[in-house]
Specification:
The chain has 644 residues and is α/β, with parallel strands linked by helices. It contains 24 helices and five strands.
């Protein structure tokens, strides 16, 4: 039933796999660029409102927005060049500034993508429900939950499937908004010259009253409060591994599409607020007021306004999908480095990070429930976390170019670009943090701190377990005698056979030794079985997949040769894919038929103090396999390996 809805398993070794699953620049722009583009629905409004009665200063804010988008985009182009396997801000901070800084960057990115989903859904529902009467507003939160669950389902099917489903909404938003921006400017051409003069006059008058520095600080404050406009730019660098070859070229082209579309829409909307003299209203967004003025009051214009606002609500739902596409990749990269439970690095049978997708969906549901969909409060948390990542990323790149100046041509231009990006994002971060400290800024720091603390607890546990397993490995894993001549004896299928599940050399050898010790001479054959599960690390290309398969084969070959050197007939079976348990059960059934007199064995780590936290950090494959085989009336014995 689940496969009927999610889709058939995908073979990771298919010849045209990466052609089917990776994204060309156009689809990457839709899937990863919607987050940034959707921020034009609320970022420019926040900046314009912060100007108060000095609306004509919006010209300088608009110019600042356009320049900022391109500066940040160019800075992240360097990240794409340096880290073509993806990882973005997390990998930059980890490798260029140190693991401790990396976990801060990764934690803020995880919170950022959870908030991307929550804010986009809440904002989209606000826009959508503005057309409905007040007596059904109570259904807004349940509708938000249903939308998140729908997007979660789409992404469990696959990355391209979710993008194709949301493609019409994205294109509808881009076409309607760019058309309105061009039309609104063309029919008000004379006003462009007038408002430009008024902007300069207003800036000069304000500077004369309060001083140039105070005026500049006022503009920077408004500019910083519109910082939601620049969020989402980092998504491409975090997901370069999902792009079509050549990845760097595709990534840069995607970034160019994002920068042009975002700067044009966000900067254009901010400028038109001033050009059309938009005045705030309690029950309407500034975008709705602006577009109503541009289109006029005819019935056809009203219909056009409704279509435009529906696309505006729709792009926010598409932006929420970016959180499901990009967030699990960051989570998986942190899981590879043992900052998060290792289960989050694994891919499903559809070759998507299903556990990461579910994590982000559930986290977004919780955030929406706690905040009751309060967008203004969520935006503060959102901006602080994403700009913390921006700061660390640009600082890391600046340090890299300066450190490697002797080996890089034109290092200074790249270093200066990164430095400008660092200064720009730092100013925005500090301004938002100070001005909004008691309106959500302190909560952002607290939540980020808790996530970082959790990461260090996870890393501490895995470090301890790894050290214990290495110590056991020195005791349990003898080196094989490469010079010993072995007479290969094929297992007799009619003899009693021990089938051992190998999930690692140490656990596998512990299980084998236990069987040999407690059943001396009883089992005439040894069969070793393992499934290599595709994860974020092995799904970076065909070479990585082959390397993963080779590691599994070498591990099984070690056990077969070890038994043969002890004159015990042995063989092995392996499979590779995303659905570990299904493939393992199928493999066990096939081996069971081939060796009728069999019994299954598997090792399972056990802890002196077994807590929910430790159980959460280890996936318990052996327990799941035991339940599945018992349901098939098969015997399996779990051998505990105590870790104290």
């Amino acid at each position: 039933m689940i496969r009927y809805f999610i889709g058939k398993p995908i073979d990771p070794f298919s010849a045209d796999l990466f052609k089917k699953t990776t994204l060309i620049a156009f689809f990457a722009w839709i899937g990863l660029g919607a987050d940034g583009l959707s921020s034009s629905c609320y970022g420019p409004e926040q900046a314009f409102l912060a100007l108060g009665h000095y609306h004509h200063l919006a010209l300088f804010v608009s110019i600042g927005m356009i320049l900022s988008v391109f500066v940040i985009a160019l800075s992240y182009n360097q990240v794409i060049e340096l880290f073509p396997s993806g990882g973005g801000g997390y990998k930059v901070s980890s490798q260029l500034l140190g693991p401790a800084v990396g976990v801060v960057s990764g934690s803020t990115l995880i919170i950022d993508y959870v908030l991307t989903i929550a804010i986009s859904i809440a904002s989209g529902m606000d826009a959508l429900y503005s057309f409905f009467p007040k007596d059904i507003q109570f259904t807004k939160l349940p509708a938000s939950f249903i939308t998140i669950l729908f997007l979660l389902f789409l992404n469990l099917r696959g990355m391209k499937e979710s993008i194709r489903a949301l493609l019409p909404i994205f294109l509808g938003f881009v076409i309607t908004h760019i058309a309105l921006l061009i039309y609104g400017t063309v029919i008000h051409t004379q006003g462009v010259v007038d408002v430009t003069r008024q902007s300069i006059s207003e800036a000069h008058a304000l500077s004369g009253r309060v001083g140039f520095l105070m005026m500049l600080a006022f503009i920077l404050h408004a500019y910083s409060l519109g910082s939601g406009t620049y969020t989402g730019i980092e998504a491409v660098s975090n997901n370069v591994n999902k792009l079509a070859e050549p990845r760097v070229k595709t990534g840069k082209l995607t970034m160019l599409y994002m920068a042009i579309s975002l700067s044009l829409v966000a900067g254009g909307i901010t400028f038109l607020y001033m050009l059309w003299h938009v005045e705030p209203s309690a029950d309407k967004t500034l975008n709705a007021i602006l577009f109503a003025k541009i289109l006029g009051s005819s019935p056809s214009a009203h219909a056009g306004l409704i279509v435009t606002l529906l696309f505006e609500a729709g792009i926010l739902f598409v932006a929420a999908n970016t959180g499901f596409l990009a967030g699990p990749t960051v989570l998986a990269n942190m899981a590879v480095d043992n900052w998060f439970p290792r289960r989050f690095r694994l891919l499903s049978s559809r070759l998507v990070n299903s556990q990461g997708i579910i994590f982000f969906g559930v986290a977004a549901l919780i955030i929406l429930l706690l905040s009751r969909g309060n967008v203004s409060w969520l935006i503060v948390l959102y901006s602080i976390n994403v700009f913390m990542t921006f700061c660390l990323t640009t600082l890391g790149m600046c340090r890299y170019w300066f450190t490697n100046r002797a080996y890089t041509l034109e290092w200074w231009t790249k270093c200066v670009m990164s430095l400008i990006g660092f200064i720009l994002t730092s100013v925005i971060l500090v301004t938002v943090l100070i001005s909004k400290f008691f309106s959500g800024g302190s909560i952002a720091i607290l939540v980020t701190g808790l996530v970082i603390f959790f990461c260090f607890m996870v890393r501490r546990h895995y470090t301890w377990v790894g050290r214990e397993l290495r110590n056991r490995g020195r005791e349990l894993l003898p080196p094989l005698d490469e010079n010993k001549i072995i007479e290969l004896v094929a297992p007799d299928a009619q003899e009693r056979t021990a089938i051992i599940f190998v999930s690692g050399r140490v656990l596998g050898m512990h299980c084998l030794n236990w069987v040999l010790k407690n059943f001396p001479g009883y089992f005439k054959n040894m069969v070793f079985v393992s499934v290599g599960q595709v994860d974020i690390k092995s799904f970076t290309g065909k070479r990585a997949l082959k390397r993963m398969a080779k590691e599994v084969d070498q591990t099984l070959d070690y056990f077969v040769r070890y038994c043969q050197q002890k004159n015990i007939p042995a063989t092995s079976f392996a499979d590779y894919g995303g659905d570990l348990m299904e493939q393992l059960v199928v493999l066990c059934q096939m081996i069971g038929k081939q060796f009728p007199q069999h019994m299954f064995f598997a090792s399972q780590m056990s802890f002196y103090r077994d807590t929910w936290f430790k159980r959460f950090l280890h996936n318990g494959v052996s327990y799941t396999l035991q339940r599945r085989l018992h349901a098939l009336s098969e015997e399996i014995l779990l051998i505990p390996m105590s870790i104290n």
